[in-house]
Amino acid sequence: MFSKTFVLLCIFFSYSCYCDGDYCERFRESFDSLLYNRVLIGQVIKSLFTRGGILSCAHRCLSLPSCSSYNYQMSESDYGVCELNGGKEGEQENLVEKPGYVFARRRKVTQLCNEARQLISKPASGYFYIQDNNCDKFKVYCDFTSEPGWAWTLVMSESLQNVGRPFTQRGLFKNEPMSPDVPNWEAYRLQFDRMKGLRSESTHWRITCSLNLASVVDYRDYVRAKFKDFDLLTHKNGGNKTCELVDYIDVHGHNCKNCTAVWYQSAEYILAHKSYQNLCDFARAPGSIQVNGTHSEQNFGRYAFYNPNFRCTSNNSATTNYWFGSQI
């Protein structure tokens, strides 16, 4: 009988990511841990009698795009029964006991939360592994449920308590990572290169307030824009005000759609909106304040001057969340 450790190592190393120069496979493919004496029923799309052991069965599954897992009958010889299964990840409710068989589910590491959403049968937000343009795998938080029909990747998040630290102040076009391998709500910012990679495959960005405490977006204290209209990763105005087009913006319940709003960003001044200023299509938001009588409150970032009635700055635990994404 094959050694379990040997089988697992062979499968893992036989199907790793291949990169050559600027080329990188879109998916890094391998299989989850083998489940012994288990088979998936009701999903078989092809049954084969293979030579070459379990690796041959694994190879057949990888060669068939519609194959999501396989059942293999272990034997002492090179020959075995290989059943290729269809269906999406997460559909394991029909796993049953069958002595002498093993079950393995195909795993794909995608480049986007949008792609990851296509691979699961039931949408559930959470942590996923995706890969960058160098085929390096990294962990992200994917949101599939706060806005129906959208998939979002968290690229940065900060709590008000952490405002003032460099990652909360430097422009988004600068590389200022914070805990990039450990996505969290209080102190997190991806490397700039990985942000660029996600942006190239995304259509929109958004900023939310304390979404970690809410299950859905109610569009209060919220902004969303298309990258083609307003790219927050390239926007540089030296800290001077410019009017930029957004799909939707709301501050203190005052909102507009497909309108311009005032924004600031420079190398040492992260993207921010000033809602007290009566500029652009999105005029002064009722309820906005001037701090010390001269400085407008800042919204969606920086927060040198802030209003506790704005959700992102309501208390020290309040968070500001930056996302890249697309409609599904």
TrEMBL record:
* Domain Apple: start-end pairs: 19-108
Keyword line:
Signal
Q: Mind telling me which InterPro entries this protein's record contains?
A: Pan_app
Q: Where is the signal peptide?
A: 1-21
Question: Under which name does UniProt file this protein?
Answer: Apple domain-containing protein
Q: Which organism is it from?
A: Pocillopora meandrina
